Amino acid sequence: MRSKEREKIKLLAEIAESLLIILIIFTAFDLAYADPMMSPLLYQKNQHYKVTSATIRVVTAYNVGDPRQTDDTPCISANGENICRALAEGEMRCAANFVPLGSRLYVDKVGVCLVTDRMNKRYRNRVDIAMRKNEYRKALQFGRQKLHVKILDNDLTY
Question: Which DSSP symbol is given to 40?
Fold first, then answer.
């Protein structure tokens, strides 16, 4: 009877050792860690997007409706949309020069935003997150950050 128990313990020890070796191999080759920046699909609020490219970019925030931070039509974006109304309805908007208007971007810490505005020409590779006029402190606190930004394929949203 004791020999059967010893055999079972020995077998369990061998299985545990094999599993440990497999875990070490997976970890060594980064197979156990799925990098969300490398994923070809993004799932956000019941929406599915195909990621066309991803990189780290400088991301800032601005207050829509504040004429000190915008042009002479502070609520109207480059594509003609009333951004003040969109933000009031809970939509996410941003400004970027490196993608066409109407593109969707996924920005870490922010989420998916629709590009409806442009920035000054000198900011070719930045993203500027639109915030409401009364969120001045929030925009100031957001500051200037380097974040992962994914360009999403608009055609594959379902």
Answer: S
The amino acid occupying position 128 is D
Q: Strand pairing of 93-96 and 47-63? A: unpaired
**β-bridge pairing 127-131 and 93-96:** antiparallel
| pLDDT tens readout for residues 88-142 | 999 999 999 999 999 999 999 999 999 999 988 898 899 999 999 888 899 999 9
SS3 42: strand
83: DSSP letter: H
54 vs 145: CA distance, rounded Å: 16
pTM above 0.70? no
Tokens of 141: 């606190």
Q: What's the token pair of residue 60?
A: 């800032």
